[in-house]
Amino acid sequence: MKTRGPEGKIFTLVPKARWRADISSSVLLPDGVRGHMVIPLGWAEQWNWVSIVTVTSSLPESGLTPQYVPIWQGQAPKNSGLHLKLCNCWGLLPKKLRKVSYVRLDWVYAVPLEILQQVAPDPNGSSLELQRASFKKMMKRIGRL
Q1: What is the block-wise mean pLDDT of the chain (145 residues), using blocks of 10 residues?
Q2: Distance between CA 3 and CA 17 in Å, rounded?
Q3: pTM of the predicted model, to two decimals?
Q4: Would you list the DSSP string of the chain?
Q5: Cβ(111)–Cβ(14) under 8 Å?
């Protein structure tokens, strides 16, 4: 994938104790979101802020819904519907992504880019990110929700 902004890359949130005071008072995130990986969708209205969705390993009791899209590291099962694929990560995934993971599309949050820390799957620092086609499909799905 060609270099681009933060869109489609996988990040974690830095610990809240390391946020500047003005950011701590202006970022509205539920506590549970801070423990998840996130994917920026694009730039938010505030300068240097991004809109994000979360990556989770659990589904609601009702099962897979249009708001939860699976991330497949390898070949997805036939007839699996919409699924997202990562760029070349050669099996070097963070532990949290080794199990089945889903992108949760029903809640979008805005945060300053400076509180995000990019997840790198290998010692060379390559970014962990969605394939461009997967990112476009995800954005199309968000537009329909």
Answers
A1: 75 90 86 89 91 90 83 61 71 62 92 90 73 91 79
A2: 31
A3: 0.84
A4: ----SSTTB-EEEPPGGGS-HHHHHH----GGGGGSEEEEEEE-SSTTEEEEEEEES---TT-S-TTEEEEESSPPPTT--S-EEBSS-TT---HHHHS-EEEEEEEEEEEEGGGEEE--SSTT-PPPBB-HHHHHHHHHHHHH-
A5: no
